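Batch manifest, entry 17 of 40.
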Amino acid sequence: MVTFFAALLLLVLGYTFYAKFVERTFVIDDDTPTPAYTKRDNLDFVPMSWWKGNLIQLLNIAGLGPIYGAVAGALYGPVAFIWIVVGSIFAGAVHDYFSGMMSLRHGGAQFPTLVGRYLGRPAKTFINGLSLILMILVAAAFTAGPAQLISQITPLSFLVALVIIFSYFLLATVLPVNRIIGRIYPLLGGILLVMAIAVAVAILFSGKPMPNLTVANLHPGDLPVWPLLMVTISCGAISGFHCTQSPIIACTMKKESDGRKIFYGAMIIEGVIALIWAAAGMTFFNGTAGLAEALAAGGPSGVVNEISTSLLGTLGGILAIFGVIILPITTGDTALRSSRMILTDVLAKFYKMDSKVKVLLVTIPVSIPAFLLATIDYTFLWRYVGWTNQVVATVMLWTATLYLLKNFKLHWICGIPAVFMTGVVCMYIFYAPEGLNLDYQLSAIIGFSLTFIVILWYAGQIIKYRSIKQKDAQYNIA
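Output type: structure tokens
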């Protein structure tokens, strides 16, 4: 219990102090009009209050990610608490803040556009494709589960449920952001938070011992923490999916100072939710062995349902069903919305979005493959979501690092987590079963070798921009 409260306190302190440091490094300016006003189109660019933006951002980036991912990550033991805290404060929240604020500074630009501006055209071309693949995978994976549950508790078949969900997706994607998302999602985001708090209170008063972080129980089991934990718990620590969602809210911000509350704040809240569900998974099933058995028997949804109904009774059962159906759907629809916005950026020179029909036509190319993929086993999809997700996060961190370098600001706040995540994704693809499935030591050698090459590139960029800064200083003196 001491470890849990210490981790919770660190997350609060991270927002209180480190978020302000990150904000000062970025340098905000509330006198500059935001794209919500300068580019207002009453579709994507619509001013909204910061608290709505925070709750919508939370729902967009979270869904069931910090619940399912945290429950699966709890198999690694209390070391999961360390990753959630450190990852959220120094990597995930920084990643989300810069992806949102850089989008704001560049007129509501989408993630691939930012990549192209700071990492070059080849990187933009690569990330355009990878981002769309990630959006399609997320929309598919976050739709299959709800459709299956709907088919189990109603007379509707799985296929009919899938058609209904995707019909809603298309509707939410083409309507103005303040119609459905702006009105309903703040309420749903609040329910997600209330659900987590209720589980936390019930666990604390359940009489079950909550595991504390000690050398003996730091990491029970045989699964290697590096790099598997960093991919298993992505939502709740750092997730590349977030940088595809942040521009949606960046287009609605009234002033730049709202960014810390919206982007950094939502990630810290998600970290709190992940912390609660990781603790619940370890505590409720009396350790990682019991949790492993429960996951093998009913999967993450079964574990969440059992914890909720046992601790919260009928209310818990309702919340569990609500969560498994509604929360993934609200992530899937914004995944398709951001896909539409990315495609709009790509086609901007050839295709003007001046009618809802055109908006719908741009949405269909990503909706069809997502619908087809939703009909296969979603656990298979989720394997590939994990690595793709963290590659996107790594690219965003490097984009923010170059932004800071080019503006002669403190680049280490993004550069250090970028190096860390580069090591994660470089090794994971060689070691993971869905990757090349190589020997652990061989995967580590290859992964760290590739990371070292990236570090050399980073060092070269630092030298380059220091030289530019020195030349500028000499020119100004002259």
